[in-house]
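Support request from a user on the community tier.

User writes: "When I paste my structure tokens into the form, the page sometimes reloads and wipes my input. The last time it worked, I copied everything first. Here is what I submitted, just in case something in the input itself triggers the reload:"
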């Protein structure tokens, strides 16, 4: 039997943040190699500056565990706990933009990489009504401070810049799905920003060469290393549900490398592109209204790469999904590409609309369902699984309809951890003051030692409360 050992602020000691500087690095690739040498559990980000030829490898703060703590405590007579190391900060932090307005939709999208968080605000009005913006926050000791406000150089009203965001190392990708490119209404675009020391500058504007009206390119964006994946919510020329584009960067030059094959026999009403996640060699696209197991039961389409070409999509469905489950409303791939977490907020695990999340593992090129997750206190209409984010051993899942503290649709979020071959609920998170209709947990993002969740106009960074497993050992 495995018991999850939980941490409290009183039972940890901070080793401190670590930043490894490699001043002689000659390229970003060399930086990445140094990061790989540290191991994926330690190296959380890479930055490289061409002018200074300076490479920074960001590692995680380490909190060392003093004693054996669990939900029930480890009985001293029966358990032997190993020395543990857990990565976390010890209190939640609310992110606040410098120009707050309820109409900005601050928190509609979020992304986190290392100690940097980006928050989309597609309703911002700096460059016209609903032109949009994105805010960048960086960690300073035990809090976060705003570093920059990003807007498109050619921003225009009703572009909704910030409806989707993604961050990887020193780059941020922002979708503006209602941008009108060359007079084509709602054709959409996406923008790449790059950090040079503490300054963020627009590096590129991306769009498909065959852009058409109402394509809404930039509906979902994902950034991983030198690769950007961008979806279109609707292709007006072919009347398809969506399209998926893959871009690569060399230096500062972004090039369209692929337009992924559209799933055969997929209906136009399937909401293909409702969610997106990627790793180095895999892309997952949600289609939450796919009729695989009944109307709007949902599905996810998996693409894999051999390094040169992308495969035809493979359809993934939950073993027990049914009509109305919306499987694929959210999807998250771990950085290793070995674990995939998929949300189904309409699943009837514990009542209508209670929701569920599914863990899939990649085995010999195939995706196999490993577990179905549902919290202990799940209830009808909680919408658990509306948002998901995962590493290979941690899962962050939002339940936007939860009546936390008895407050209607205030929302909550959960952290699960992998314990051997099982996944165990570790903790439940929510703002200190529950607010009716806030729907906390609509968006989730996890990176290393921190989990970020948003609700209507509120964004919080929580300690991930990462745990290690205390094996049950007779003395």
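"...and here is what came back when it finally went through:"
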């Amino acid at each position: 039997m495995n018991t999850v050992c939980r941490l409290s602020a009183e039972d940890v000691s901070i080793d401190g943040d670590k930043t490894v500087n490699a001043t002689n690095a000659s390229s970003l690739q060399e930086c990445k190699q140094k990061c790989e040498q540290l191991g994926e559990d330690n190296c959380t980000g890479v930055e490289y500056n061409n002018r200074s030829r300076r490479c920074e490898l960001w590692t995680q703060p380490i909190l060392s565990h003093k004693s054996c703590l669990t939900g029930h405590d480890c009985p001293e007579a029966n358990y032997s706990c190993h020395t543990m190391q857990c990565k976390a900060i010890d209190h939640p932090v609310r992110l606040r933009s410098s120009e707050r307005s309820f109409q900005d939709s601050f928190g509609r999208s979020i992304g986190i990489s290392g100690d940097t968080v980006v928050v989309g605000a597609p309703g911002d009005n700096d460059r016209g009504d609903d032109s949009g913006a994105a805010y960048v926050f960086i960690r300073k000791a035990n809090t976060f401070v705003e570093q920059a406000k990003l807007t498109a150089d050619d921003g225009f009203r009703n572009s909704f810049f910030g409806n989707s965001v993604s961050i990887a190392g020193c780059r941020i990708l922002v979708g503006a799905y209602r941008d009108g490119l060359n007079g084509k209404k709602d054709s959409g675009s996406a923008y790449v920003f790059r950090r040079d020391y503490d300054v963020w500058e627009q590096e590129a504007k991306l769009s498909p060469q065959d852009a058409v009206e109402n394509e809404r390119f930039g509906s979902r964006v994902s950034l991983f290393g030198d690769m950007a994946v961008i979806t279109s919510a609707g292709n007006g020329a072919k009347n398809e549900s969506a399209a998926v584009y893959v871009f690569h960067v060399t230096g500062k030059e972004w090039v369209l490398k692929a337009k992924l094959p559209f799933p055969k026999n997929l209906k136009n009403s399937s909401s293909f592109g409702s969610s997106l996640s990627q790793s180095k060699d895999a892309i997952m696209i949600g289609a939450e209204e796919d009729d695989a197991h009944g109307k709007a039961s949902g599905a996810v389409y998996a693409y894999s790469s051999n390094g040169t070409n992308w495969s035809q999509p493979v359809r993934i469905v939950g073993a027990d999904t049914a009509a109305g489950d919306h499987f694929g409303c959210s999807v998250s791939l771990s950085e290793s590409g070995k674990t995939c977490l998929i949300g189904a907020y309409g699943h009837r695990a514990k009542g209508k609309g209670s929701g569920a999340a599914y863990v899939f593992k990649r085995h010999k090129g195939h995706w196999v369902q490993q577990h179905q997750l549902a919290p202990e206190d799940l209830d009808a209409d909680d919408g658990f699984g509306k948002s998901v984010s995962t590493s290979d051993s941690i899962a962050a899942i939002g339940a936007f309809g939860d009546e936390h503290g008895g407050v209607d649709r205030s929302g909550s979020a959960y952290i699960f951890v992998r314990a051997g071959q099982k996944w165990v609920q570790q903790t439940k998170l929510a703002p200190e003051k529950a607010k009716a209709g806030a729907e906390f947990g609509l968006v989730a993002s996890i990176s290393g030692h921190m989990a970020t969740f948003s609700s209507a106009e509120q964004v919080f960074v929580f300690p991930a409360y990462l745990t290690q497993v205390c094996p049950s050992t007779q003395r």
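Agent notes: The reload is a front-end session timeout and is unrelated to the input. Residues 2-77 form one domain. The first strand starts at residue 2 and ends at 5. Escalated to web team.
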